[in-house]
Structure formats: C-alpha cells, structure tokens
Amino acid sequence: MSSDEFVVTPWNVEGDIDYDKLTKQFGTQKISPEILSKIKKITGEDHFMLRRGIFFSHRDLNVILDNFEKGKKFFLYTGRGPSGNTHIGHLVPWVFAKWLQEKFDVNIYFQLTDDEKFYTKSDLTLEDTSKFALENALDFIALGFNPEKTKIIINTRNIRRLYPIAAQVAKKINFSNTKAVFGFTNDTNVGMIFYTSLQSAPCFIEDLPVLIPLGVDQDPHFRITRDVAPKINKPKPALIHNIMIPALTGPGGKMSASDEKSTIYTTDSPQVVKKKINKYGFSGGQVDIEKHRELGGNPDIDVSFQYLRIFFEQDDDKLKKIYEDYKSGKMLTGELKAILIEKINSFLKIHQQKREEAKKNLSKFLLSDE
Amino acid sequence: MSSDEFVVTPWNVEGDIDYDKLTKQFGTQKISPEILSKIKKITGEDHFMLRRGIFFSHRDLNVILDNFEKGKKFFLYTGRGPSGNTHIGHLVPWVFAKWLQEKFDVNIYFQLTDDEKFYTKSDLTLEDTSKFALENALDFIALGFNPEKTKIIINTRNIRRLYPIAAQVAKKINFSNTKAVFGFTNDTNVGMIFYTSLQSAPCFIEDLPVLIPLGVDQDPHFRITRDVAPKINKPKPALIHNIMIPALTGPGGKMSASDEKSTIYTTDSPQVVKKKINKYGFSGGQVDIEKHRELGGNPDIDVSFQYLRIFFEQDDDKLKKIYEDYKSGKMLTGELKAILIEKINSFLKIHQQKREEAKKNLSKFLLSDE
C-alpha cells in the first residue's frame, strides 16, 4: 500500500484516509450546507460534530429530514462490536445519536454484535464477547439515553426477535454480494457470511424508516441492506457517517479496542489517562522546544488536538485559540496534552459515576424477546 | 444424466439410486450382520426396517452400541424440513426413531427447519414454513412419543437456544466446505450457506453422544458436523440412514411434500388415498390381465409393494406371500393396490385420531427456550 492509499472496511481500517475520495468510492453524499441549515432549523441547534465535519457524509439524510418536516417520524439505530472494553472513540457516534434522539424525540436501538466479534476474532469466545457486550452497554446507558425510548439489542440474547427479520434479508443476499462488498473469500467462515443479515435486522424492527449514525467503516453492511430493502418491501435505511477516530499513536488506522497502547478506555483512571497520552499520544510538535517555538506545531496531525476537536472541546473559540497557539509555537506539546488530559479526566470522572449507576438500570434498557 | 446415474443431496434426489454405490460415494458403512445381532441382543427385537434394509447404512453406530453396552447413554435426534404437509414417507424414520427411544430409553429431539425451507423455496414465506412446522409436529406426536423424553425444536422459535451452538459450528466452516459438500455456488443465498450450522446445533444440545436416524439424503449436513465436532471438543454424531421412499408415481426420486400426485398425506381421506393409489401408483404389472397372468408382475419396482415392504406390512410371511403371488401373476395389480389401500387407510384412521389429540398436547412437546 503506497502512502496515498487507504483501506476502509468493517474489519480493517488502514492508511491516511482521504474522506473526499472515500465518499466517491463508497458513493455516499457529503453533508451539504443545505442539510446543515435544515437540521439547525428543525433542532434549533448547530451540533459541533456536524459543524466540524466529524459527521461528514450521508445517504438519504435529506429524505429523513424532509419527511420529518412533513410529520413523518423515523427511528435511530446504531451499535458496536463488543471485542473489548469501550474506548473514548466509541462514544463519538453515541453522543451524537443521543443528541438526535433528544432533538427529534425518537426511539433508538443500540445493537451489540457479540456474535460478529466471535466470528471475526479467533481468540475470543462467545462468552467473552457477550461479557464485553454487557460492559459496553453500561457506557452507552451512562450517556443519559431516555430509557422509555431506548432499547439495547444483544445479538445472541435477542436472536429470536432478530432472526426472522435477518432471514428475510439473508434470502436476498448471495455469496457474490458479500464477496463484492466485503471482499469475502472461499475461506471466510459461514458465520461471517451470514452475519450482515443480522446487522441489517434492526433496520426493520419498527415499521418506520430508520436513520443510522455510524462510523463510515460500517457503511458496506448498509449498502447491502439498502439493496435488499425494496426487495422485501421495506424502506431503505438512511445513514449519517462519522470519520474514523484516530488511534492515540497517530493517524493511519482507527482507535482499536484491542490495542492497549492506541486506546483510552472509559474505565481508565486519571493516572492511566495521563500516562497514555503523555507516552503514546502522537504529536504534531517539533523535535525540541526551541524548534517548536521557532516553527510551531501541526495541530492537523496532532492526535491530542484532534481529540479536542472531535469530542472534548466543544467551544469553537477555545478550540480556535488552542489551534492558533499550537500552530504558532506559543503552545508546547506538553501543554496541549495537559489540556486534553484535564478534559478527558473531567469527562471520565462523571462518566464513571454514571456507568456505576447504569448497572442498576441495565435491565430496563435491554430489548425483550417478545 | 444417463439412466445409471443418480443424485442424492439434501435438496435434490434424482435417478435410480444404487445404494451400494451411494454408500461408497458418501463413505458410510453398510449395516453389518454383527450390528444387527448386537441391536437384537440389546433390544430383544428385530425391527423389520433393519431386517429389510430400509435402514441400510450408518456412521459410528457400532460405537454408540458398544458404549451403550458399557452403560454410556446417548440421545436421539431427527427432523423434518416443513415445506408442506406430512406425507407417509416422512413417517418411516420417525417410527423407527420411536422404536429406538423405547428400546434404549433415551431422549429424542425433533427439529423442524422452518428457516431452511424458507431459504430454499422461493415461493414459501417464513409464515408458511412455520405453519407447516406446527402441522408436521402433530404427525410426529401422533406416533406416540414419550412427552417426558421428547422435545420438538422449531428453528425460528428455538433460535435463542440453537444460535450460540450453531455459532460455534459456523466459525469452523468456510464457504469452500459448503461448496464441496453441498455444491453451493456464488449465487447461493447466505441463509442457506449458514443454515447447515443450525442443523448441526441439536447434535450438541445435550452433553452426550447423539445418534441420528435420517434419510440418507441428509447425510452431507452431518459429514460437516462430524468434521467440526473435534474442533469444538464435542463427540462426532453417529448416524443411521434410511433409503429414499419412492414417489407414488415411481422410482427415480423421493416422495415430495410439494407434489400432490406423488404423495399421500397423513390427512388424506380414505377416498383420496384410494384414488391416488389407483390413479398414480406406479405398477410393476403387465399391460393387461392376460399378460399379467402369463408373465407375472415385478414387485421390486411396484410402488404399492414397496410401500408394504417399507412400512405397511410388517409381517414377513404375509409380505413374502404377496411378493410371490404378484411375481407369479396370481395377484393382479388392482388386488395388490387394494391391499395397500386397506393398510394405509387403517393406519391413517388411527393416526388421524391421534393427530387430533396431539393438538391438545403440542405445548408439552415444544422445547423451551431457557
């Protein structure tokens, strides 16, 4: 792979992603100024993740919004593959989904795909992934979703509800389709080959159109769902895509739940957060203080700055000042990291309390199988 | 396909099957005189379906018997693809399974694969196949299985119990395996590709070895299961195979639930049974009575005689007399058919009563999902 190439699939993200190219490759639409102003008109707000292009691309979001304005509701669906503990990158689409739920006052389904992670990870048992699913669910609940309008799906637990829907989808997908979309080969296990139908199933769990906020790497699953939907007389799911959250160790991949170094977990202590960022945080700074003061840093590749931009500094003026100070050399890498460490630890302090409380409420959120 | 060729797969049976060749092709063992005498020793009986070679082949049946003699139990598992109403051919392995249950005093699981028939039949909905599943269950229960030791699995209904087991199997099967065993292609739908893991799942539902009485056309599924079993630390299932039950219209296929003409349903009235056999029953007789008296008939290809041999005349002496009288020309085709009609109608009279009673007991037999 040459330096200007990149790979984005549901199971592998590599290289320096050119999101303009990716949008063309995937055939999605960039979120236009018209869509942004329509969202602002409906919600009365201008979410920083939209404004900053963290959510950058979509499929049929305009249709969802137009119909909403005509009084036609929709529901939300997002999810997570529970291959390990939750890290801060996972929270990005969830926080945005919560905002959508509040502003549009709609139901949300959150799917934990314990079966998928079992099929794709040779070292994980189904017991492992089901345990991670329950752990991840706590982080989701901790963000403050409305229990009246929020249901958590765990695939193995809710399979009785999902399977008859997945079967409708599975009958309309052949092996060629999965080869073309996922690059499957004759060596791919039959669990993985079937699995995409289960990721499709929540799209049709309510008799309404669905909007899915998700990492752009998951788009291929729903490309299949969108092809199948009219064949089973269902509306095509609409999507809104976020960029990949960079690993702590730098661009060229996504933050991965299974790589300790590249990841800040939601359960990390303040000391661990500090150590990880100071030790592994990929820096856009110069080789020494003198050079940094002279030439300035590069916030566009600095992971600490990116985390502030993506999630932890929601105030545009403050973010702008940090950007300029770092770029001019006024702010040192250590100072930038200190800002991020403080922000993350403040966030995690509250999150970890809410995560504890979530243990008591978990059962309220789990989808029933009837 | 030339006249000496035949095809036997779980979804297609064609041609005049040479069971010796099939045994070699599939790599199964013929049931030996030693095995027959061991079964007789254990059960005190000599079941006519064994004696007559209706059950003709096996995998590891000797292991099951040897272990049983040493005090090691097993359980039974068989099933049916609910693509239509039950016909008399379906009852053959079930009647034999019931005998095994009684004689060995073991549990039996009966799987109704409503999902499979949905995946493989373009004209059937999942509602159709689930409805057929419940209808077929009544015929199974009507045969008199012990409700304490018998559980009926309906795939969509019991998927929560089956799926975690199926997932263990699915992770160890790749697309190549399903191509090799079932002849799947790139056009095969992903439901069918995954499905074999669900047919494997009941093999591992108890922590004991399993013995599966089944039509030999289903053997390929369990060839896969037997390859996978050691990889998931489970015993290989043992199998005992019955021959294909010929269609009413003659050899060169199996009786099919979806072809009205080739099939006698368990719910057919005496008049319908009489009409179907007289009208469609493939005959080994001569073109007219004179020729028949002169040359005699051929019981070996006569479907009415075969039905008596396979199921409806359990008395060897009576069967032998019919064979000889038909072969010598003493018995006419109409007379032979009349014997079969009487036998089937006597059987169905009682079966249909028991089938009605089964409606009350259905819930006792359905596997719970916990």
Automatic annotation (TrEMBL), chains A, B:
Biological process (GO), any one: tryptophanyl-tRNA aminoacylation
Database matches in SUPFAM superfamilies: Nucleotidylyl transferase
CDD domains cross-referenced by the UniProt entry: TrpRS_core
InterPro entries reported in the protein's UniProt record: aa-tRNA-synth_Ic (IPR002305), Rossmann-like_a/b/a_fold (IPR014729), Trp-tRNA-ligase (IPR002306)
GO cellular component term of the entry, any: cytoplasm
Catalytic activity: tRNA(Trp) + L-tryptophan + ATP = L-tryptophyl-tRNA(Trp) + AMP + diphosphate + H(+)
The keyword Translocase belongs to this UniProt entry's keyword annotation: no
GO molecular function, one term: tryptophan-tRNA ligase activity
EC id: 6.1.1.2
Sequence similarity: Belongs to the class-I aminoacyl-tRNA synthetase family.
Protein's recorded name: Tryptophan--tRNA ligase
Lineage summary: Archaea, Nitrososphaerota
This protein's encoding gene: trpS
